[in-house]
Amino acid sequence: MAGYDRERADDRLSVQMAARIHCYGERFIGTVVNLGAGGAFVRAGRTLPMQVRCDLVVIVGDGGDPEHLLVTGTVVHLADGGMGIKFDTLAPGTLARLLGILSSGGTNLKRRPVGSGG
Question: What is the pTM (predicted TM-score) of this model?
Fold first, then answer.
């Protein structure tokens, strides 16, 4: 959906990171396939309706002690078997950690911008 791309304020990086989605007392798993400071696109076996708020736990690292990054957001886009989630205002510490992960290419991050072709 082109409007979604035009409204996006942050750059995204292609990633493959496990995630848990929590909404209305239900939990299901998915994969974050692109991530930015303002949101993420998550592929999952199911999607949530537009404008639904949810908690997203992004699992950073697959070693013995992965980090769990918790963000809250709203579903703003549905496509390609997944959903775009726009993050709510993040606490300063959460935002700083997310920016640090993105800038350092933390575990499981591919350091290429979405749409760069490779």
Answer: 0.78
